[in-house]
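seq as requested:
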Amino acid sequence: MGLFIFFWAVAAISFLLVCCFFNRIRLVIAILKAAADFVKDVCSALLVPPVMFTFQIMLYVSWLITLVYLYSTGEQKRPQEGWPFASIEVDQRLEGQLAYHLFGLLWINAFIIALGQFILASSAGIWYFMRQQMNSPVRTSVFRALRYHMGSLAFGSLILAIVQFIRITFEYIKKKSYAMGVPENAVTKFIFKCMKCCLACFERFIKFINTQAYIQVALTGKSFCSSAIAAFYLIFRNTVVFGMTHGLSIIFVFVGKLFITVIPTIAGFLVITQVEDISKRISSPISLCICFAFISYAIGSLFMQVWGMASETILQAYLVDIEVNANVATNCPASLQEFVDKNKKIKDKTCLLYTSDAADDLLCVDLGGRRIIKKKK
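struct tokens:
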């Protein structure tokens, strides 16, 4: 009976939330539809994640090779009895070099991820504001990133790399503490777990702010710090819309990955087991089905990564469009235009994007060479 009442209470609260935030939910759905339209219109954006992944693989391979050479510079010890290989003594000098090498990996890896996010965000912004005149938005976004915004991407990735390095250093200190005789009791475990949880939450927060800041850099052409502040105020003043968009995006991304992984795997299994010519040549379909699932999941992850980044960018682009054009979205795509047409009389009181630039005489958006400018009254 208690469980029955609990589920009814949850259902009632959910119904009230849907009624209270009905228009915002419709806006989120329209934004998700627009993100799907972007993926359909700019198919070249699907190439960005595989290219960035290739760069990451090259980074990991080169880093491992360098790590082997760097580790071999330590002082060698004679092999122990019964063990044919010599060991390396890690002194303070080598420990510092390894830490520096690790930090370089974290920074470059974060930079590659930031570059991919910026290219996708810039492409979605160009598609939103310049659909009729756009010419290869991905190529234009690559040029913008390499020509104008390398510093912003490097600075944002540096902050993330520092946080990640602190997490790794914390794990190293914890291991050393136990090795030096710190009692491994319930109190110390609780303290270490709390600190680990705080650092993990802080890293996720930095990743989220960095992503939103890169979108602001792509839309406005401003520096990383200014974009991060603008993104923070934008999220703070549009908490419900951002929360719903991010939450529904996570749900749709999960469902999309699930369907893209499961359906081809089942289809491959049926082909392997039901087609007589193929089933005779294969002793067990398990290994092939695992390969099907792995390839399908990789393809689904790449596709949904583009779609998720596009949805967050289009949300910010919509709010920029409203701010620049006096609370009227004049550049939104058809899927968003339906929502705008039905809500012309509703004033959106939550989209104050340029709070940090209140003293400026102009509001402007920089998108691939085009500047949309609105003079303040």
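The longest strand covers residues 362-367.
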